[in-house]
Amino acid sequence: MDMGVEGTTPRLLFRIALGLAVALWANPIRACSFVDEAAASAASIRISNYYLLATALLGIICVLVAFYRRRWFWSLIVVALVLIFHPSRTITPLHAPDCTYPNIELSQAAFALVAIMFVFHLWRIVVARRRSHLGT
Alpha-carbon distance 68 to 104, whole Å? Predict the structure, then answer.
């Protein structure tokens, strides 16, 4: 009998690997099967719309801060494009194999992009004020 790693047979190792692969593959499917698809889809639309509203409000504030800095053109373009092509409007609410909804994940990414722009503008204002105070 051909012994593999430390006294185990290759057949046993294959069975263990196959069992592990099936267990890992089946868990997301099993998890999604217990969820009401219509309710989960409606919830993903609602959550994505909340992110759209939050992105729009933060986008308006970001453009106003950028206008204060006199750097509003690119901020306005980016915020407008994010809102026009927001995932709540462009992506269908179907769950992925891991039971997540791409429209929610991409809505979070859109919000994060606008939030990063907002923080960047605030940071530039703080840096400009520090420089002006150091120069006087």
Answer: 32
